Amino acid sequence: MSDGKFLTAEEVAERYRGEVSIGTLRNWRAMKIGPSFVKIGKAVLYPIVELDAWDEANKIRCRAARRLKGSDGEQT
């Protein structure tokens, strides 16, 4: 949080292209799941560095496709 940049719930919904709604963020906060947030009075703010960390933690790692060897033994 050292850079001091935050997003509102509306901006977070935009960041995820509407796939995560404001209502979903509200539910996640109530259940204490989802990305970390800061609450100051009534304002709910999401630190960008926390969103980046949450993205990284939820990243699905795919294994590299195996290359088939041709009849001459070289990889194709």
Structure description:
By secondary structure, the chain is α+β, with helices and mostly antiparallel strands. It is built from 3 helices and 3 strands. The termini are far apart. The model has no long low-confidence stretch (mean pLDDT 88).
Could you list some keywords that capture this structure?
76 residues, alpha+beta
Structure described in brief:
The protein has 76 residues and is of the alpha+beta class. It has helices at residues 9-15, 22-31, 48-57, and strands at 6-7, 38-40, 43-47. It has a domain at 6-57.
The dominant shape is elongated
Number-wise, the strands total: 3
**Element-by-element helix/strand order:** EHHEEH
Helices and strands: which structural class? alpha+beta
Mean pLDDT: 88
Radius of gyration: 20 Å
Which band does the percent of strand residues land in?
Answer: 5-15%
> Major sheet: size, sense and barrel closure?
3 strands, antiparallel
Write the layout of secondary structure elements.
Blueprint: E1 6-7, H1 9-15, H2 22-31, E2 38-40, E3 43-47, H3 48-57
Antiparallel strand pairs: 1-3, 2-3
